[in-house]
Amino acid sequence: MKKAIGIDIGGTKIAGAVVSADGSLTHLVHQPTDTSSAQAVFEQLLAVIESICEQAGCSVNEFAGIGIGLPGKVDRAAGIAVFQNNLPWDNFPVVAKLKEHYPELNIVIDNDVAMSAYGEYFTAEVEPGELLSYVTISTGIAAASIVDGQHVLGAGFSGELGMTRVYSALDQAYMRLEEAVAGPAIARHGQQLIGRDVQETKDVFDLYAQGNAEAERIIESVTQTIAYAIDNMISLLDPHYIIFGGSVMEKNPWLVAMVAEALDDTLLPAQKDAISRLRISQNKGQHGLIGAGSRVL
């Protein structure tokens, strides 16, 4: 069975694993990200790759390649990390630098949300011609769509669902979706409506579970606003699969049912079959690694 190395680089940790053709992961490695310099991050990336090979008991050249997911803006074709707001890489030539160490390997980099979408696509039973859209709701919000194994890129800035404008009932204003319902926004609503009992996003969900009326108001409003954005996605793309990931959704998977209920009130009758296509990721936060590895298998 063909195998590859999948890497997910974030501002707090670098994760890596061996990815098999069936989507399974072995020989997982996690290290806190050393963001002291661009070279420090790169050297840590090399260390993670070498650690994976050591655990797997084989040479790096025995793998089909290395796929790497990065936050921020990525020049996929040139293999350059253009800008990452939580990493000290500025137009850093990731692929060229890695090729100095692994000249024979196929090496691919992409945005981390795109890699997560590929991970979902790789493990779902997607038929030829079917469109899969992955939506992540966490500290930020973004989406990526895959059809026939190809990322729908547009002119290069597609998938920025968090940048779309919606009406936030809690703020009584139009704003970007990310400003209204991402994790920090939920915490902000909690601090404004509940007070000092709320320090972080998790506190709002804990209070919701306890039946706190203001927390219920926040979560109901947030899910309604998410539903408006998904309504737009359905109207524009009508994906065969809409898969939710990111910490807000994965830690609270019941939110998908609430979004579905809200969509039942907004979609046209002819569109309502889309509700059955909503689902939570089953890859337990590993979709980025799976997707990265799948790109070189």
From TrEMBL:
Superkingdom of origin: Bacteria
Residues making up the signal peptide according to the UniProt record: none
Gene3D superfamilies cross-referenced by the UniProt entry: 3.30.420.40
InterPro entries according to UniProt: ATPase_NBD, ROK
Any Pfam family matching the protein: ROK
Protein family according to the UniProt entry: Belongs to the ROK (NagC/XylR) family.
Protein name (database record): ROK family protein
